[in-house]
Amino acid sequence: MSQKNREGKRTARERLREELQRQKTAQRRGRALKMGLACVLVLGVAAVAGVFLVNRGGGESTESRSSAKPISMGSASAASRLSIYEDFRCPACGQFENQFSDTIRELAEAGELRTEYHLVTLIDSNMPGTGSKKAANAAYCAKDEGKFPEYHDVLYRNQPQEQDDAFGKTSTLLGLAKKVPGLSGSSFTSCVEEGRHNSTVEESDKAFGESGHQSTPTVLLDGEDIYGNQQEPLTPQRLKELVAGKN
C-alpha cells in the first residue's frame, strides 16, 4: 500500500472520528438544552405557584390580623393609647367601667387618649355558658351601627351576676339594645341572631390568650400595666395624671 493511500485512509478515519465526536457533542448539547428548558419550566411553574401562595397566604394573614383588631375609640393622633382587655360577664370589668368610663371619655373627647377595647370570653371558658361571646358579638354589631359606646355602657349597667349566663340569651341582648336610641333595627337584630362577628370575637380571645395576660380587666397605657398594681391602685385622677405626662 502506497504512502498516499495510507494517508488517505487515516484522513478518512480521522474525519469519521471527528464526525462522531461532533454528533456526540451535539447530542450532549441537545440533552443539556432540554434539561435547561425543563428546569426553566419547573421554576416558572414554581414561581407562579409561589406568587399564588404568597398572595393567598398574605390575604389570609391580613384577614386574621384584621379580625383580631380591637374596637378603637378616640383620635388616632392622641399621644396615649389605652388598651383594655375585658369580658362583659366579668364583675371586675364592670367595676372598672363604672369607675373609669367617664374619665376615659373625657380624655378621649379632649384628644388626649385613644382607647382600644379587646373583647374576650374568659368567663365562658371558666364557667358554663356563652354570654361572654354573644355579648361581645352584639357589641361588634353595635359598632357596625355606630353605637358601640352606648351599647357597651348599657351592657355593663345591666350586667348579670357572674354565674348567671343571661347574656347567652339573644332576647336579653336585643332587649337591652332598645335602651340605645336608634340601635334595635333589623340590621342589628340579624347581626346578633346570626352571630356575624363570632369569628372576630374568637380571634380576639385567642390573641388575649397568647398575650401572656391572664385576668380581666387588663388595662395597659402605652403597653404598661397600670391597673394590676395593688400597692398603687389606679384612680381616675391618677389616670389623668399619667395621660397628662404623655402629652
Would you give an account of this structure?
With 247 residues, the chain is α+β, with helices and mostly antiparallel strands. The chain has two domains: 67 residues; 175 residues, Glutaredoxin, CATH 3.40.30. It is 63% helix and 9% strand. It has a five-stranded mixed sheet, sandwiched between helices. The N and C termini lie far apart (111 Å).
CATH superfamily of the largest domain, called what?
Answer: Glutaredoxin
First-residue to last-residue Cα separation:
111 Å
The computed structural class is alpha+beta
Overall pLDDT: 81
Number of helices: 9
Q: What's the CATH architecture name of the largest domain?
A: 3-Layer(aba) Sandwich
Beta strand %:
5-15%
Number of strands: 5
The helix/strand order is: HEEHEHHHHHHEEH
Q: How are the strands of the biggest sheet laid out side by side? A: 1-3-2-4-5
Contiguous runs where pLDDT drops below 50 for at least 5 residues:
1-10, 29-66
CATH class group of the largest domain:
Alpha Beta
Question: How does the overall form come out from the CA principal axes?
Answer: globular
CATH third-level topology of the largest domain:
Glutaredoxin
Question: What is the strand and helix layout of this fold?
Answer:
Blueprint: H1 3-67, E1 71-73, E2 80-86, H2 91-109, E3 113-119, H3 122-126, H4 131-144, H5 148-157, H6 170-177, H7 186-194, H8 198-211, E4 218-221, E5 224-225, H9 236-246
Parallel strand pairs: 2-3
Antiparallel strand pairs: 1-3, 2-4, 4-5
